[in-house]
Write a structure and sequence with these properties.
Ig_E-set, about 0% helix, mainly beta, Immunoglobulin-like, SoxZ_dom, SoxZ, Sulfur oxidation protein SoxZ
């Protein structure tokens, strides 16, 4: 579907608040624009974003047509244990794009 970019600290101490950033390359077409043929360009947006930390959801968001292209999300979570952060973007067609990153907690 699209290219993703995630930023997660590689290491942290238990209890640290870590900043996480995620972006997906996506046109976020609202369905309100007209194409060169005068027809409306079909809506195609990312509807849902979620981040799981070692299997537990720590952040999620619903996106709407007002969201810009290539949506960027930044949030924080508490580093509790070493594990994998899994990012999931779901679009209007039900397509899912995923990315993951590891964090080592001492």
């Amino acid at each position: 579907m699209s290219r993703t970019l995630v930023s997660v600290p590689k290491t942290a101490r238990a209890g640290d608040i870590v900043d996480i950033r995620a972006m997906i390359a996506h046109p976020m077409e609202t369905g309100y624009r007209m194409g060169p043929n005068g027809q409306a360009i079909p809506r195609n947006i990312i509807r849902h974003f979620a981040c799981d930390y070692d299997g537990e959801e720590v952040f999620s968001a619903e996106f709407h047509p007002a969201m810009s292209a290539n949506p960027f999300v930044a949030f924080s979570t508490v580093a509790t244990k070493s594990g994998t952060l899994t990012f999931r973007w779901t679009d209007d067609d039900g397509k899912v794009e995923t990315a993951s990153a590891e964090i080592s907690v001492s």
